[in-house]
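Hey team,

Filing this mostly as a record. A colleague (T.K.) asked me to run one chain through the structure pipeline before their review meeting, and I want the input and output archived in the tracker in case anyone asks later how it was produced. No errors, nothing strange. Just documentation.

Input sequence:
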Amino acid sequence: MNDKFFSLPKEKQQAIINAGYRVFSQNSYKNSPMSEIADAAGISKSLLFHYFHNKKEFYLFLWDNCAKTTIELLTKYGCYDQKGFFESMERGMRAKMEIIRLYPDMSKFTIKAFYETDGDISAAIQKSYHHYFNLKADKARMSMNPEQFIPGLDIPMMYREMYWASEGYLWEMAQRRDLDFDKMEKDFTKLMDFWKSVYLRKE
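Output structure:
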């Protein structure tokens, strides 16, 4: 990757990244032309290849940006600093909504990339996914005091269930053209209240 990409203004970087997410989320890797991405970003195809040597490099950069942006914003919102697990989850959901504001097509790209079958990139995607997922899970479990939960609870399984449900909800919301962030926050509050009633130890 050409370091000149990072010398661009943040707004231009974001426009190129969002163009990549949009095009790659609508088509398979093979059927996503770099020329279409360049048009969506408002730059020439040659300039896009000046920043990224080839499509594979750009695609994996976008994937890596998903993980890094997610962890960066989860850290910014303090979800790893809380002693209460559900407080961490609530802060995490606020961080995820901020990601949707910045990168509307990121979640769609993430799902598309995870199930991509092109042999040229699928192995790299799967390896990276497991690395970042385990990293996030380990950080989340650091704030889990087993005494706060009902006896005998499979905590890693609980975390995975909540993660999958939250990601599924965000995926569903991301399909809508006009996002209602107030509704999303209310929905997550209800979901958190439900999980608390199921998993927290009764005093």
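Quick notes for T.K.: The mean pLDDT is 84. The chain has nine helices and no strands.
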